[in-house]
Amino acid sequence: MRIFGPYPHGTRFRILVRLGKEQRVQSFTSEAEAQAEVRRLRIEAQEQAAITVEKAIAGYADQLRKNGLKEGSVVTAVYRLTRLFESVLSAPMETITPAQAREMYQSLTGLSVDTRLNMLALAKKFCHVARENGWIKSLLLQDVKREGRRRCGKNKLTLDESRKYLATCLTQATSTDSQVRQAAIAACMPLVFGLRSGEVLGLRVKDIDDGGQVLRVTSAKTRAGIRSLQIPEWFQPYLASLTKDQPSDAKLFPREKTWLHRNCVNMCKLAGVSRVVPHGLRGVHADLSILAAATPLQVSQALGHTNTGVTFRHYADKGLAEQQQHEQAVQSLIPTTTSPN
């Protein structure tokens, strides 16, 4: 926080307060009032400068919530920042030097490339906000470069494994135990519809629309994620078993992401197939859709993507799409006339 003034302005007195990129002007009827406000603001600035790393992280988390970030993502951000600055949590934020921050980041070992890149990007954003709030004077970690390449996609099931996985889920979905039945149906959702974990867990009874024929995704990461998907006729009874006698606003799966992740992995074990997580099952859905002659655009829209580039970079096998195009081209060359006797 930087404070300028007071300055005479007509019959009044003004002070200018700069906080990062933002600034505000305050006007007072007398110079004494303006000076009193300057003293108060300087005390406030001193208190901000003495804020600990732990309190700065908590303040950053509050700003993320105000910006509309989901609580699960806020918790993840706090966990990563706390892990990065673990050795200095009780120290004043302004005492952390760029060299010290760089050393703390470089000391993190045993993390995947994706985790390190995500942590670095998050830490840089945190430090920008910290400087704007007056918690630090110089940016930290700005000279630390990205290292390694992100791993695109997750492990997938083969076509035969997909059939075994789905058959196992549907068998479990007929259980008399309501919890087993709910878990099995949830484990089907990323494969059958290509839904994200958050989309599966966000579904409510009212999202099963048109007499149980349409599934509406009303909460997603992007606008493209808001979509309606046709429910296969053979799958409609399973969802109907979850919605029967339930209020329209009730969640189909009132659980957390770790529950869905754990159920998908357990279903893989029961089916005797490769270990695949919900994110990987979205990729399987994309590949199976392409094999069923869906166009890349249709697959992208079903997954809730803004473009096909995201679909092929993280989920669908581009080779399958090219193979389908080639087969269609070959088919177009086959004569339609009947063969001679």
Structural summary, described in words:
The structure is a single chain. The protein has 14 helices and six strands. It has helices at residues 31-49, 53-66, 71-84, 98-106, 113-132, 159-172, 178-193, 197-202, 236-243, 257-271, 278-291, 296-303, 308-314, 318-333; strands at 2-9, 12-19, 22-28, 208-209, 214-217, 227-230. With 341 residues, the protein is mostly helical.
Keywords:
disordered C terminus; 3-stranded antiparallel β-sheet; 341 residues; hpI Integrase, Chain A; 53% helix; mainly alpha; single chain; 3 domains
Q: Tell me roughly what share of residues is in helical segments.
A: 40-55%
Total beta strand runs: 6
Mean pLDDT: 85
User: What is the CATH class of the largest domain?
Assistant: Mainly Alpha
Largest sheet: 3 strands, antiparallel
Précis, in short:
This protein is mainly alpha-helical and 341 residues long. It contains 14 helices and six strands.
Blueprint of the fold:
Layout (H helix, E strand, L loop, with lengths): L1 E8 L2 E8 L2 E7 L2 H19 L3 H14 L4 H14 L13 H9 L6 H20 L26 H14 L5 H16 L3 H6 L5 E2 L4 E4 L9 E4 L5 H8 L13 H15 L6 H14 L4 H8 L4 H7 L3 H16 L8
